[in-house]
Design a protein that fits this description.
With 305 residues, the chain is mostly helical. It has one domain (2-304). Helix content is 81%, strand content 0%. It is built from 13 helices and no strands. It has helices at residues 2-6, 9-33, 41-65, 67-73, 86-110, 115-132, 140-158, 167-194, 196-201, 207-211, 213-239, 244-272, 276-304. Helix 2 crosses helix 7, helix 6 packs antiparallel against helix 7 and helix 7 runs antiparallel to helix 8. The longest helix is centred in the last third of the chain and has 29 residues, at 244-272.
């Protein structure tokens, strides 16, 4: 159980689900519609497993580096030196990261697409540098996390380069990637507000510490506003459709209830939030919105078929 906790199994499962839905409900239908070969199942599996393992490695190394800070911010949830030693955690990091790069590289070697191996290595290195270097740089560390997580949505496309020739597919996946990037960035800032005490104790210059809580709240509000307005524009376009009440009405209602309204709620609750517990609750709601956004793939797929 401790090993599942240190790798953040629930978060990794969400990433795996995201990639599977992107492949099954976006990439495959478009490839079939354009009479292009569908990505073989074992290649998709390599992509998902590699992402899972690299993400696990990133979470492990982050826990190792943040041990002292977490002992201040979340002493009850710290696993290192309790259930798992630091030495064992370091070994586990090397093992899962190495296996992740190896599995993700198998299709690259077979089809001689060696550039993807560099991408996988770069992502692993980026997560390592985030934990040791970038996290202490105001806002930049948050941007790195948002980039790594949102890039996992794009990654399945790199395992079948035909996908980049389909303009509508590229546009849709880009929208989902942008949504993921913005909402993860906002959630990371909320988590920084939650962890201010420990971060400040160890000289981690996060946005709330350097720019202040009010500025951080304003930036999060602007990010949520971008998402809400962006989806609102999409809903407006849908309303112009002649079959709005037959097909698009339900998808617009879904986005309103499970994405837009929760984000508005978080914004209002964030105004008065002061304690780590309150910020933790807002972070959890934001995570729910992330999952709701990804699950909209299922809604759109069902309505179009």
């Amino acid at each position: 159980m401790a090993y599942l906790k240190i790798i953040r199994f629930g978060n990794l499962l969400m990433a795996a689900l995201t990639q599977w839905l992107v492949q099954l409900m976006l990439i495959n239908p478009f490839l079939q519609g354009y009479n292009l070969p569908v990505t073989q199942w074992w290649i998709v599996a390599c992509c998902i497993v590699a992402t899972f393992l690299l993400g696990a490695g990133g979470n492990i190394i982050n826990d190792i580096v943040d041990y002292n800070i977490d002992m201040i911010n979340h002493p009850d949830s710290v696993i290192l030196n309790k259930s798992i030693s630091v030495n064992a955690a370091n070994k586990l990091y090397l093992i899962v990261t190495g296996i992740g790069i190896f599995i993700g590289s198998i299709p690259c070697v077979i089809y001689k697409y060696y550039g993807l191996i560099l991408i996988l290595g770069f992502m692993a290195a980026l997560m390592w540098y985030y934990s040791y270097k970038f996290k202490s740089i105001m806002l930049f560390g948050n941007i790195v996390v948002a980039f790594v997580i949102s890039f996992s949505i794009l990654l399945p496309m790199f395992y079948n380069l035909d996908t980049f020739t389909i303009k509508p597919l590229v546009q849709i996946i880009t929208y989902y990637t942008l949504f993921s990037f913005i909402i993860v960035l906002a959630r990371e800032i909320i988590k920084c507000m939650e962890d201010m005490h420990g971060d400040n104790e160890y000289g981690i210059r996060t946005l709330p510490i350097v720019a202040g809580i009010n500025t951080s709240k304003t930036i999060v509000g602007i990010l949520f506003l971008l998402i809400t307005v962006g989806i609102g524009y999409f809903q407006y376009i849908q309303m112009q459709s002649v079959d709005f009440f037959k097909r698009n009405y339900f998808s617009s209602l879904y986005l309103l209830l499970f994405v837009q309204l929760p984000l508005i709620y978080v914004c209002f609750r964030m105004i008065k939030a002061q304690t780590p517990k309150q910020y933790n609750r807002l972070s959890a709601i934001t995570k729910f919105v992330m999952l709701s956004g990804i699950m909209s793939l299922v809604v759109f797929y069902c309505l179009m078929n």
